[in-house]
Amino acid sequence: QVQLVESGGGLVQAGGSLRLSCVASGRTFARYNMAWFRQAPGKDREFVAVIRWSGGSTSYADSVKGRFTISRDNAKNTVYLQMNNLKPEDTAVYYCAADPRAVSISTYYDYWGQGTQVTVSS
């Protein structure tokens, strides 16, 4: 069982930056792929980024490539999402997710956080 708690959301102007954090409970954090998804009002939940437990490789949605960076600190059971050059279309609730095998498909993830709101004003 894994419990995830996100933090770091807030209101920021376009062009600004935020860093989201997700702290995981459990002793097997290092064996989980960790991902960020987001959901805007009236839209489906969409993949943002993932960092794999094996090798630490990363993947990003095209819409955030070059602006967002996902990283993890296994000693702190924490995954981060550094978001730079934010745009109004990045406004959404951001969710952290964990699974040993899943990558970019939300339905394959077993564990989810409660979400943190990110609002980007123009």
Distance between the termini: 40 Å
Strand content: over 45%
Coarse shape: globular
Structural category is mainly beta
Mean pLDDT: 95
Q: Segments where pLDDT lies below 50 for 5+ residues?
A: none
Radius of gyration: 13 Å
Specify the helix fraction band: under 10%
Number of strands: 11
Biggest sheet architecture: 7 strands, mixed
| H/E element order | EEEEEEEEEEE
List the total number of helices: 0
Considering the chains and any ligands shown, give keywords for the structure.
single chain, 122 residues, mainly beta, 7-stranded mixed beta sheet, 4-stranded antiparallel beta sheet
Summarize the topology.
Blueprint: E1 4-7, E2 10-13, E3 18-24, E4 33-39, E5 46-51, E6 58-60, E7 68-73, E8 78-83, E9 92-99, E10 111-112, E11 116-121
Parallel strand pairs: 2-11
Antiparallel strand pairs: 1-3, 3-8, 4-5, 4-9, 5-6, 7-8, 9-10, 9-11
Describe what you observe in this structure.
There is one protein chain. With 122 residues, the chain is mainly beta. 0% of the residues lie in helices and 48% in strands. It contains no helices and eleven strands. Strands 2, 4, 5, 6, 9, 10 and 11 form a seven-stranded mixed beta sheet that branches. Strands 1-3-8-7 form a four-stranded antiparallel beta sheet, with no helix packed on it. It is globular, with a radius of gyration of 13 Å. The protein has strands spanning 4-7, 10-13, 18-24, 33-39, 46-51, 58-60, 68-73, 78-83, 92-99, 111-112, 116-121.
